[in-house]
Amino acid sequence: MELQKVRPADIEKRSFEIITEILGENQPDPAVEHIVKRVIHTTADFEYAENLFISPDAEKSFAEAIQNGGVIITDTKMALSGISKPALAKFGAEVQCFISDPDVAAEAKEREITRAAVCMEKAAKLNRPLIFALGNAPTALVRVCELVKEGTLKPALVIGVPVGFVNVIESKEMLMETDVPKIVARGRKGGSNVAAAICNAMLYHMGGRRGGPAANSPRP
Amino acid sequence: MELQKVRPADIEKRSFEIITEILGENQPDPAVEHIVKRVIHTTADFEYAENLFISPDAEKSFAEAIQNGGVIITDTKMALSGISKPALAKFGAEVQCFISDPDVAAEAKEREITRAAVCMEKAAKLNRPLIFALGNAPTALVRVCELVKEGTLKPALVIGVPVGFVNVIESKEMLMETDVPKIVARGRKGGSNVAAAICNAMLYHMGGRRGGPAANSPRP
């Protein structure tokens, strides 16, 4: 099997071309194709062409939050580490994850809930535009939905893409019932990599990338 | 849709039970089921029940390296961040990723190869047992295979699970042709999350987890 000769700088571009070829007549809506294709690029899983729900206000709300001192809250260090720091820095935005904070661990133990759920409460107290990028813990997503329903949280965007088998589908359907701007991977699939890819797709689309337009920018 | 009532401590156990139920008669080999099921747990993607190749010497070689001052080398900060630090600490092992090192970036630019490939060369110079956990860059996996073929690298284990569309399948088939201990996700799928999950499955199996045996320990 021969290796294809592709320059490092062209690998991503070529990857998106191949994704577009494989999608064939099943291309995503041009308004969100940069998001859908980046998730496929991250997972090589074409099921995401079918299962991603992106509310019409999602990307605009994300961009406004990022440009106005917003912070992305993740439920894992892995998602945090996958989100492009240079892109965030370009807009003076940042990403935070409280999962390893000692106060979070102590409170979770005492209340017998997950640390991820406590993290969401801690984030909700921040007086800044909040973007939740949740790729792991359905308990975190459930807690965000509860806080929204109670009226104590008004997030700029909730990216609800936890993965797994216990209350994962349920947590996503709970998010679907709220009226917040949202991006949801319906079904069991998702992940920290997916959460990060969705954030990066939107950051790059905003111009948060060195070296010109992103490979996944919408075609002219 | 009703939420299932599952205590935080039981979520993972219940998840593995559901995975086992769904796999039905298609259970993985008991010797490696903790690895296969943890990857499915991480991705909710049952294709991994079919596409993971695990060489018979892989886990033994991993464990020996971990217990003898070995280091896990990743090609992304995301994989690094997904590998359990408490589990590694239990064995005095560690994980390193050179992708953001300034010397790596400079050399990659000069030689017009990827930073990930340069990282592998840098790792190969370490005088320690080496485990490569590559979930992102096929160029890194290709470089590892080349160094193995040249005889300048003798890794304890290569986890070859890059994801994507350009030279991904080719790089994995190149690894299959070598005689090093290996774990490979054949085809296009994989990821930093998959690389981390494979490492964690083996670390937990070695007893590297607080609170007793892992949910994914082989059944008695």
TrEMBL record, chains A, B:
Q: Which InterPro entries match?
A: Cbl_synth_CobH/CbiC (IPR003722), CobH/CbiC_sf (IPR036588)
The name under which this protein is listed is: Precorrin-8X methylmutase
What family is this? Belongs to the CobH/CbiC family.
* Keywords (A to Z) from UniProt: Cobalamin biosynthesis, Isomerase
Q: Per the record's keyword annotation, is Aminoacyl-tRNA synthetase included, yes or no?
A: no
Domain named Cobalamin biosynthesis precorrin-8X methylmutase CobH/CbiC is located at 10-204
Q: Which SUPFAM superfamilies match?
A: Precorrin-8X methylmutase CbiC/CobH
| Example of a GO MF term | precorrin-8X methylmutase activity
State the species of origin.
Answer: Candidatus Merdivicinus excrementipullorum
Its pathway is: Cofactor biosynthesis; adenosylcobalamin biosynthesis
Query: A single GO BP annotation from the record?
Result: cobalamin biosynthetic process
Question: What Pfam families does UniProt report for this protein, alphabetically?
Answer: CbiC
